[in-house]
Predict the structure.
Amino acid sequence: MRLILFILLLSVFSETIAQESRDSVFNALADAMNQRHVYDQQKEIRLAGLKALLESEGKRVPIEEQYRINSKLIEEYWAYSFDSTFAYVNRNLAIAAKIEKQDWGIKAHLKLAALLAFSGRHKESQDILSRIDRQYLNDRLKVRYYECYRKIYSNLDYFALLPDSKEEYGRLYDAYTDSIMPLIQQDEDMILGAREWKLLDEGNYDECLRVNSLRLSRADIATEKYSYITFQRSMIYQQMSDRQQEEEYLALSAISDIMASRKDNASLAKLALRSYEDKDLEKAYQYIRFSFEDAIFYNSKVRFVEIASSLSLIMEAHQTESDKKNRALLIFTVIVSMFSVVLFTLLYFVYRQKKNLQEAQLELRKINEKNIEVNVSLETAMSDLKLSYQDLAESNHIKELYIGNFMNICSDFIDKMDNYRLTVNKLLRAKKYQQLFDMTKSVEAIEEEIEIFYTTFDKTFLSIYPTFVTEFNELLVEAERFSLKSNDILNPELRIFAVIRLGIKDSARIAQLLRYSVNTIYNYRVRIKNKASGNREEFENQVMRIGAHKLF
């Protein structure tokens, strides 16, 4: 009996310790998310220090030193900004070509191929790899070369829809893995990593965890290595159906990514999906929004595709839950109001009876005055409640329209991507490489998508604020007012101020959304303010009030 009691107490104690450990991990994740700007500032300081070395107080930096500094900048930017990494890799390519150093050129080309592979640009990566002559590669560079191909076929295998394609990509992935194995005998961590994957495939989870623990003990948090190993550990627990441990190590991987300012990451998005499956919609919404912001910052094609599938599910579920809370709040407000009226009524009658015993005429006058004050207060309260309801209704209406349009855009984009994939696949099979090159070289598709985006934005915005153009013109001097050819299409100036009306005032953010330059946004804003019929400093605040409380 005592043994059974001891076992029960031990079980309860162990569960308590495990829960406290889990809570501490997720509290640490929340803290890291709140401190993202601090880690990013530290990253920017390191980047600024390296860039300063290229200037060297006005002295010309030797071209060989420029190559080494660029290489350090590439490593700093690697999972932080695709565009900046791409720019510095191209600088090193130019340096290698200028001084005719073949080994430097090969290293830079391998770096570029890896960058393209990791960001989902597989065809471009393959094109670069196909131009590299393997006879000039030493064992270290061959490992990088084969790793690029492994990443390409790993991604293609993950996203493949056809069984035959998936099988072929998996076979090629295994083939390049086999090519790497003889070359990494001196790298213990790579050997252990390869062994860990093999044990996982074989289902030997205990030994797989032991190897992973050994690798994890040699990794520091806030490094790519720590993030990757903890993510792998979460995959082991996923195969073991240990949901709690899987989520804890996804959280640890996400913490490491945030502390290292690694914007190209997968842990938090996967954790968002797990939270959604656990019905923790608030956390799921916070995690997926955070991941989406990182993906936008990094400009990762792969992450956009990964996040898009779960983003709409989580956003829709979060909105539904928010609507439920709003309805519950409304019901609670009505109930409190009813009780308040009842309580006030009771107090009123008690007060009236007491005063009637003293002086009927004086009490009657006081009661009348009190009633007048109460009526004014109630009218004011009802007016405030009506305005609050209109604000809430307006906000919900805007969310519904934009979420609907967002889902349509995502759906159309997926269809276009699939058609594009089928076309590329067809041309590849037909070996029509020149036609494929001509097709991918053209920017007409991008320009067409931008025009579709503008048209969709304009129509959606004007459906929400149909009087926007009219009210906007009223803020301008008569000679400078706009006259549009189409009732549902805005010009660039009106489109910029339409974004401002939605609450986005930062010129850099507006430029990113509308694909204009920051200078263009700034010039348009200044030019329009100069045409204002009233106070120029208050012009944008007046724009923010256009259409307020007129949607319903």
Notes: DSSP finds 23 helices and no strands in the chain. Confidence is low (pLDDT under 50) at residues 1-16.
